[in-house]
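Input for the complex:
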Amino acid sequence: MRNPQRPVTLDHVDRRLLRALAGDAGVTNKALAGRLGLAESTCAYRIRALREAGVVTGARAQLDLALLGYPLQAMIKVRLGSHTMANVSQLYDALAATPGVLQAFHVAGADDFYLHVAVENAEALRDFVLRHVTSHRVVRQTETHLVFEVRPGAGVLGD
Amino acid sequence: MRNPQRPVTLDHVDRRLLRALAGDAGVTNKALAGRLGLAESTCAYRIRALREAGVVTGARAQLDLALLGYPLQAMIKVRLGSHTMANVSQLYDALAATPGVLQAFHVAGADDFYLHVAVENAEALRDFVLRHVTSHRVVRQTETHLVFEVRPGAGVLGD
DNA sequence: TGTGAAATATAACGCTA
DNA sequence: TAGCGTTATATTTCACA
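Predicted:
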């Protein structure tokens, strides 16, 4: 690991490696090396270096949420009535830890949090909001928007 | 692969496997089997079955965006002036493919898209909005909110 | 960059409950 | 049907030249 504040300098090969790994972390070193025209040993070395530098922080499996029985997604905007540090961070912890929450964004503006959630159906969504969001005293208002679709973006390195 | 519409039935072991893989896709089969108390052959078999069932769709490396030089994140709400199918899907394609976009949400409500983006600094954020969002004719209005922090949620399986 | 040894993954098999 | 243990083969990883 390195100083997490100072940006790392990457060359073109690093960028291509990161792009490839961001798209498919399961790719084998052999395949990657072949695709980029590197020796396998070199490719493995650079990937390890990127990991040790902290640029690659881990890998997560992507799940088909609909197949798992959670075909409905929503974005829930949460607005607080009180913004003491303790209130905000405690609620943030609680919301992020609630099953069904895919991501919790703490944002600036009129709303405080955006919760991206996946649920079984409309009824489960209503229950989620009532039981796990508005049930917190500090929550003053919520606004729930159905998510038609989520797409992975090009990312900071482009595609 | 299976019929992508019909939910799969998972037992408790499958759930634990998916939770583990969602948190760290890089874990070795040996370690996973040991942790869950399975034979390595059984563990490998079940993981492959989950993959073939389409439950696990892939794996993505997580990058430290600040270390890469993109320490600033924002959520940009995008509202269109015309909602023909062609307009919407074409803009969606263009926005998702724009470098800097981490995720693009197509949502119901007054706003049409939420763009989660990462940029170098405030100036880059302004340029992003002007050059890649409001430059599209069909975009009527945008609203940009700084993202203080993003947390991975517990996910549909809990943590 | 290349090499080689150790660790690991993969896939197939038969056996069992 | 699912789990287990065992094979053999392929692949990855890592230290070193």
